[in-house]
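One-letter codes give the sequence; the fold follows as tokens. Both lines appear below.
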Amino acid sequence: MKLLVVGVSLFLSLSTLAEAGGAPPPRMPSPEGQQLQNAPETTVRPAGAQEVFVMPSGNIGCVYTPAGGTPVYQPADGGPELSCDIVAPHYVRATMGRTGAAMLDHAVGDPSCCSSGQVLDYGQSWVRGPFSCASERTGLSCRRDDGHSFLLSRARVSAD
């Protein structure tokens, strides 16, 4: 009788523990009698983080998105991407992707420049991925390794 009570108590304890998640469920063979195979592990590569920098004047701000994008934003060509906005004298956005010429957008639908960010002091350079930018009192010039570039200044805005 004691053995029966101990056995029932043990069974109920283990059942309660398994339901509470304390013990893994038993592994059973598939209905066809084959052994279970572990699924291959997949490595999820976390997306990168954007980097923001601004000119000391507060008139120009840039956002760099690394290759692969971020959890929130994916460049159309997969990245990397450099996008810079100038506020005055007119709001313009210059963007360079992985390939092709730099593009200028004179009708920006989501003007958001220039948030606080790392200040790229005059005379300093910034380099990430295939992009490099030079900060000067006269404006910001950015270039991709293949030679395509843009210039943002109060006097002139250009892209090629």
